[in-house]
Amino acid sequence: MVRAVPAWLRVGAWVFVALTALFLLAPLVVVVGVSVSESQFIAFPPDGLSLRWYREVLQSDRYLASAWISLRVALAVTVTACLIGGAAAIAIHRRTLPFSEAMATFFLSPLVLPTIIYAIGMLMLWSALFGPVSILTLWLGHTAITLPFVVRTTLAVLSESDPFLEEAAKTMGANRLQRLWLVVLPQCLPGLLAGGFFAFNISFDEAVLSLFLRRPDMTTLPVQIYGQLEFSPDPSVAAVSSIMIALTVFLIIVIDRMLGIQKFASN
Amino acid sequence: MTIKTSLTKTSLTKTSLALAGTAALLATTAAANAQSITINSFGGSYEEAHRECIIDPFEQETGATVQIVTAYSADAFAQLRAQKDAPQFDVIHFSGGQEIVGAQEGLLSPIDESQLSNAADLYDFAKTNLEAGEGPAYSIAALGLVYNSETAPKAPTKWADLLDEAYEDHIVVTDISNGYGMLSFLMLNRVMGGDLDNIQPGLDAVTQLLDNGAVVVNTSPEIQQEFAQNDAWIASYASDYAFTLRKAGLPAVFVQGEEGTPASFITANLVAGRDNQELALKFIDMSISKSAQECFANALRYTPTNSTVELSEEVAADVIYGPEAVAGLLRFDPITIEEKRSEWVDQWNRTIAR
Amino acid sequence: MTDRTENLVLVLPGLLLLALAFFVPIARMLVLSVEGEAGLTLTHFERFLSDPFYLSVLWRTVRLSLIITLICAAIGFPMAYIMAHVGPRLRLWLIVLVILPLMTSVVIRTFGWMVLLGRSGLIPEILRDLGLAERNFAIMRTEAAIVIGMVQVLLPFMTLSILGVITRIDRRLEEAARTMGCSFLGTLRTVVLPLAMPGIVAGSLLVFTLSASSFVTPNLLGGSRIQVLAASIYRSVTQTLDWPFAAAQAVILFAGVLLILIPYAQLTRRADG
Fold it and tell me: In the CATH scheme, what architecture does the domain C52-267 have?
């Protein structure tokens, strides 16, 4: 065995984690605090204690309907971004195509411009070519801006993978699809998972494209929150956020119980 | 061999399942109702009042449905301009003077006064440029001073009080990218001796305020936060928002400055290039009706533009109301504002930049 | 089918999507920046580049993005390393911790910071009580507020990018270095850090570009007195309605970011695999 990690470093590591946790969670604690406030306006520390804003949110058709739309768009975007982005990352990583470097940079470009520019351009173009926008427009738009995340994370993971595995599979007679499915895909899985997670979150929380590329009868959750804020900034928006936080934690516990953490987190 | 094929099959099936699932997620039923119009509203309690006062009665009367999109004036205008080739709104509401640019760019349809049965009851200033495409004003937000009656050391009476040192650094200045902020600034500029050709006095006053520690905010929710959370004492803003603050439980009081009360018009505009213009015109007509405006004033304390409106004493106390009072409202020439907006914003940015 | 065809088939959907659904619409907007009443014009670029105010906005954007990226890397690397070396259950909760900020709507999350950093906020109050700050001290509406708010939401991109790579590092390499007498920190520096480079590069590319192009958080936390370029673009689009100038600013932002990213990507090309 090697020398143990010095004790001061272990302590230091825990202090570091604790401080980071404090930094990351403090604003969220405020949000949860605001959500249980009794008062009409957003204030912290909360004024009284009540669950009225939760009741309000859960009974509000508009919040529920918009959450449902956001969820569907985000899921669809995650699937397509992972398929398209994952495939592109694999191809770029193999470096048999010319301009692989350039392509890697190319796939990053949607991140560089503020979404407002893209939203306006997309709306102008779509209206001129296809008429009124639809949910398809939003889906395309979200897929385009989430693609970089999937490509980047997958590329990063692939760069650490063993290049000889695929070669070995080839020698053993595996065909192209099998090599892709059985060898390459498992190798990129952690990157795809991370990229897919980002894609989902970005699509779910994206307000600008959703604001401009929406059909009148489709409002996503972030747009609904934004709309609520201007004229009636009440704690219901904080309640929505708290519910989302709780759902995330809950989902992870369920996955833990049903599948076992190892399968989900250790790769 | 068999293993190979079945593997290939599995992977293909899984991919196609994923794609089919995606398609299902996006499947929607298009609401292709001919008897339907799309409008924008401003969200929250404004939208509730809008629904109660105009939209519900309209739907009952015509049997048509109204599709509401929550979009503030600036966002709604950007959307309207970008989708020029295929507009989605039938009636679009603006509170920041966007109708002037919209009319110039041909995004809005001209309205003939005879098409609106209630137009005759409107004050003249509310229907100045219908034939150019600028829709009628259906309510007015009055700008004045909003102060915290519990913490402010004294009640302000005039615009010049903003510079009173008694308020120390508890002053909130609204950025001129905000429509109300623009009018407040122009008023301050006027009080300090400037005019639309010379905004330097106003900029100097703002510099002085900032040197005293005033904060600059962009949006209405931020104003609320400054009052609720950060001990703001005074701000120049609109009467409707003061009422919103009060409804939310804050001790906010609205006073008109002695030097005058600038008015911000909320207009209902007819969008060009839509099939449903007749129905849309009916909606606009409804917006300027006596009953709708009474309802709006009761719900949110907006000043009506229909001369026949009658308000209860309680409401009238909060609202600038009646021909004389309304005639006293100040309107900065909206066309000049639009012409100079870019230049002013540049100068403003420079002045407030740290 | 050759290898080349296979790879072409794989990369084509992505290229097409980006070209048709991203670049064409962007071009539609950006072309406004050079469209004048009489043919092509560069006046909008001149206006930006000859104005110290806008140049300072550009400089601030770049400077803050660099600071945010550095801080994210400084927190993200040790965090990812710790995550990789603890048990799976704890690792999962650490991941949850890092990504939770992403799960709250940006506006409401920013509100949390406004409460903590504002004039009557918790943190300035504590600093005042400790006698470290003046009466009207606030962190809200300063560059520090922008950095704090952005680091919180961009940290997951950095941490998870590094984590994806660090978990694949062969643990035996570290052990080997340690048996050979290398100290813990030495191993970290000479073995883990170089191997984690692809993750750090990927993460910093994401963080840098995202901080240069986001405007909601900087706008709310920095306020209008401290503008960044993306927020200025948003204002030109929706408030002053000067779309050509907005497009010109976007082109400049795009060029500025590329100017920094391309050399960076070149420098780290080998590490980037």
Answer: Orthogonal Bundle (1.10)
